[in-house]
Specification:
- The protein is of the alpha/beta class.
- The chain has one domain.
- It has three helices and three strands, in the order αβαβαβ.
- The protein has a three-stranded parallel beta sheet, with helices on one face.
- GO terms for molecular function: ATP binding; ATP-dependent activity, acting on DNA; hydrolase activity.
């Protein structure tokens, strides 16, 4: 709470950009789709905060995909290809 985790992640993303090769969206020898995205798993209550902070701190350098709600992509192949476009994927976790 208020310890700068979001700012640290933003700095880490900017300091370590994804490599150019192999190209995101291409297939590996095993048939897997290459993705250079970063997955952020957070509480639903903080998802908007993460989205706002990422937009403020690294606007123009980062695409954010919010994987939440009824309109999210649910086909695994389409999902993997969607994620390669985004550099950060926000996903919520649920406590059981």
């Amino acid at each position: 709470m208020g310890m700068g985790k979001t700012v640290e992640i933003c700095a880490l993303l900017l300091a370590n950009p994804a490599p150019r090769l192999p190209a995101a969206g291409s297939l590996t020898e095993d048939g897997l789709i290459v993705s250079w995205g970063t997955l952020v798993v957070c509480n639903l209550s903080t998802m908007g905060q993460w989205e706002a902070e990422l937009g403020d701190k690294i606007a123009g350098n980062c695409l954010v995909y919010k994987y939440h709600g009824q309109s999210r992509v649910q086909n695994p192949d389409k999902l993997a290809r969607s994620f390669h476009v985004s550099q950060v994927v926000l996903h919520r976790h649920t406590l059981q």
